[in-house]
């Protein structure tokens, strides 16, 4: 029997980095978390303990902090591209660098319409994500959003589904629609305007969610993806994961009280989970 090493990667996870960009009139605060995931000629490290081709994960971590000073100045995508290229260009043993970045949301405080120069409030759990992969085939850039918690109080229904002996769900043409959206999309180039595109795509997703006459989560998922592909030629495909954060009408009739779609019980689990990728034909 012969045994050999299969696919393997190594790197540093959760390199948590904060940066103050000191503009003359105000401070910009950025907080990111970076994963470095490397592939390459590392077989002998596993099989005979030969570390001569290994760039220590500690050095990878230090490289992220050191390069952030000059090269994390705009988007996480641009910083990820710089890091991926740095690891590949400087280490012949590395054949693929995958850089995963997550940016937390901090918003400058605003009083009487004016931004405070250096005090912030969390923008909530929503995070901007990016994954850069560089290898001998080229570079791919995937951007996205996680924990985008959104809700609408009407223009959502769910009717005409299969009914069998176990069906108890009542049809409704007017329900709450809430989801904690996880979205990611790939760009057709690594040389696009990442900040402008991200902001535009996020707005398009939110506008479509808000204005869609939803017949199901599936129906709105597709509409959101379709709207982004129609508007942004730089996007190849988009994947949406949409858990259904149920708000179920509470039965007030048992107390002789009418419930005109006003009182609901929010349930965490179990939850519907709808996913889909929307692509160009
Ligand atoms: O939008 C929905 N899609 C479903 O597939 C589904 N199933 C369910 O019970 N409720 C819903 N809602």
Low-confidence segments:
none
Strand arrangement in the largest pleated sheet:
1-2-3-4-5-6-7-10
Write down the Rg.
23 Å
Structural class: alpha+beta
Largest sheet: 8 strands, antiparallel
Broad shape: globular
Q: With helices defined by DSSP (H or I, 4 residues minimum), what is the helix count?
A: 5
Bound molecules: uric acid
Relevant CATH superfamily of the largest domain: Urate Oxidase
- Mean residue pLDDT: 98
Helix content: 10-25%
Tally the beta strands: 10
CATH topology of the largest domain: Urate Oxidase
3D structure, described in words:
- With 281 residues, the protein is α+β, with helices and mostly antiparallel strands.
- It folds into two domains: 15-136, Urate Oxidase (Roll), CATH 3.10.270; 148-279, Urate Oxidase (Roll).
- Helix content is 24%, strand content 40%.
- It is built from five helices and ten strands; from the N terminus they run ββαααββββααββββ.
- The protein has helices at 43-47, 57-71, 76-90, 194-211, 217-231; strands at 15-22, 27-40, 94-111, 114-135, 138-152, 177-187, 235-244, 247-249, 264-266, 272-279.
- The longest helix has 18 residues, at 194-211.
- The protein binds uric acid.
- The site of uric acid (URC) has 7 residues, from helix 5.
């Amino acid at each position: 029997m012969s045994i050999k090493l299969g696919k393997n990667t190594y790197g540093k996870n959760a390199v948590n980095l904060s940066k103050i960009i000191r503009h003359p009139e105000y401070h910009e605060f950025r907080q990111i978390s970076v994963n470095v995931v490397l592939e390459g000629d590392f077989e002998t490290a596993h099989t005979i303990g030969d570390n001569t081709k290994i760039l220590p994960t500690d050095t990878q971590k230090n490289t992220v902090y050191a390069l952030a000073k000059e090269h994390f100045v705009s988007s996480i995508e641009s910083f990820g591209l710089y890091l991926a290229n740095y690891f590949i260009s400087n280490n012949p043993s590395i054949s693929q660098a995958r850089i995963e970045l997550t940016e937390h949301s901090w918003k400058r405080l605003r009083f009487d319409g004016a931004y405070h120069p250096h005090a912030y409030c969390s923008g909530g759990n929503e995070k901007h994500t990016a994954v850069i992969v560089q290898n001998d085939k080229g570079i791919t850039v995937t951007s996205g959003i996680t924990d985008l918690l959104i809700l609408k109080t009407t223009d959502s229904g769910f009717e005409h589904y299969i009914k069998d002996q176990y069906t108890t769900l009542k049809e409704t043409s007017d329900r709450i629609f809430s989801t904690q959206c996880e979205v990611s999309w790939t760009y057709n180039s690594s040389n696009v305007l990442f900040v402008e595109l991200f902001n535009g795509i996020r707005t398009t997703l939110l506008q479509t969610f808000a204005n869609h006459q939803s017949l199901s989560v599936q129906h709105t998922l597709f509409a959101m993806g379709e709207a982004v592909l129609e508007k942004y030629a730089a996007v190849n495909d988009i994947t949406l994961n949409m858990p259904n954060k149920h708000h179920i009408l509470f039965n007030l009739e048992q107390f002789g009280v009418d419930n005109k779609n006003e009182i609901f019980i929010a349930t965490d689990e179990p939850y519907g989970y709808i996913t889909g990728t929307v692509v160009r034909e």
